[in-house]
Amino acid sequence: xxxxxxxxxxxxxxxxxxxxxxxxxxxxxxxxxxxxxxxxxxxxxxxxxxxxxxxxxxxxxxxxxxxxxxxxxxxxxxxxxxxxxxxxxxxxxxxxxxxxxxxxxxxxxxxxxxxxxxxxxxxxxxxxxxxxxxxxxxxxxxxxxxxxxxxxxxxxxxxxxxxxxxxxxxxxxxxxxxxxxxxxxxxxxxxxxxxxxxxxxxxxxxxxxxxxxxxxxxxxxxxxxxxxxxxxxxxxxxxxxxxxxxxxxxxxxxxxxxxxxxxxxxxxxxxxxxxxxxxxxxxxxxxxxxxxxxxxxxxxxxxxxxxxxxxxxxxxxxxxxxxxxxxxxxxxxxxxxxxxxxxxxxxxxxxxxxxxxxxxxxxxxxxxxxxxxxxxxxxxxxxxxxxxxxxxxxxxxxxxxxxxxxxxxxxxxxxxxxxxxxxxxxxxxxxxxxxxxxxxxxxxxxxxxxxxxxxxxxxxxxxxxxxxxxxxxxxxxxxxxxxxxxxxxxxxxxxxxxxxxxxxxxxxxxxxxxxxxxxxxxxxxxxxxxxxxxxxxxxxxxxxxxxxxxxxxxxxxx
Length: 558
Prior knowledge:
The protein has 23 helices and 18 strands. The protein is α/β, with parallel strands linked by helices.
């Protein structure tokens, strides 16, 4: 007999109503649904059409699974904030929030070499694939419907949400500013309603996104707010954050980072457990505020029932602005732009050319690209790629930090109403993002009465950036920047790797995520270097980096 088996590792965070499981929180109209209310709402919509209709009306961050006799359907929210996975072995079909459980039960422990290379180059695995050949991931805004067929399982996929430009607003600048104000206020009101008088904790830097959240909280009169920053003492980001928090009368905490501190944090059982959990076999784990939350939690500086609200924005996709001036964009240009923007800046000639062709095929398959694009169509698909790959799997996946330390979180700038405002803007506004900057400056003047000055970057780092921008000095510039970064990076996070290992592996194309990615793969697949030496990509620069790292890591007993 065929079996559809649901396994939930974090079952204490899931709520069950009959054969429906749900995790997270969402707004349905003006009503907030959390815990058992969310599972009960989905349980009342038993067939697939009703299930999909309800998903489209939900505004929040959740995952849901519904079992029926001989079938099941399951879905992630619009940004995949709680990942789900599935796989199959023989006559058993597995659904879980734990990809490692599926890997064990499908009896498949072999790493996908291509997925591992992509993981290191981009920070995520494209589409529905993962590091393990038999484990699939549910994409953002996706419903998977599995049913028992004649001796097999039938698996169908549909999207209940996408993030294109649609219903474009052709309004005056001031009318758009007014709409942005309304969308921002609505999004932060949802955060306040969810918090229910609990402390809201905001990771605060110099960026406009996190400042928007604290400024709007101030406008709306919510006082139970703590902001925190981190990094090397004296870094410019935390300097701006301290000034903003002080001007708003918000409690502000700072957690100092250093190479030495990162060396200690990354040698703990907590780090190994976190990177394994956060990877989900598909994403390089976010590390930026992981130790800051740990230290603040250990000090009792933020209450355990707090809601953490990071400033991840639904309009930060950094597109190729030059496209808007062109008549048409070819598929080749489109795919090459994706690789240039989202993958490490390696030299794609020579032994890397075959890898480039295969990655282009994976990108094209995940988006169903066209031979020729009108500029706005190309930008829409480019934006869709950013949303379903980097934003969902890498940026949004950073909330695993808060899950790991046991905190609730909410993403106000991915509130559906806020996201729909950005997706309805004319392309020119999403290209330059000036409208967001101008709005935050107005809000800051309203709440503080003045602008906060940003610090100036180091002249040496600025020189390295300029060198990296000059084609014939590109490699030298990146190497100078990287070696400088190891000792002077504002987060000190290269300390996760001994300096000798860094010097022996850094070629000018790696960043911190290359090293976090390598540690993560090594922890999960300790013998993967053996297959690399025999594989078809053994001469690519990424595999050479991986092999150099595994050799040196073994020498230093990492």
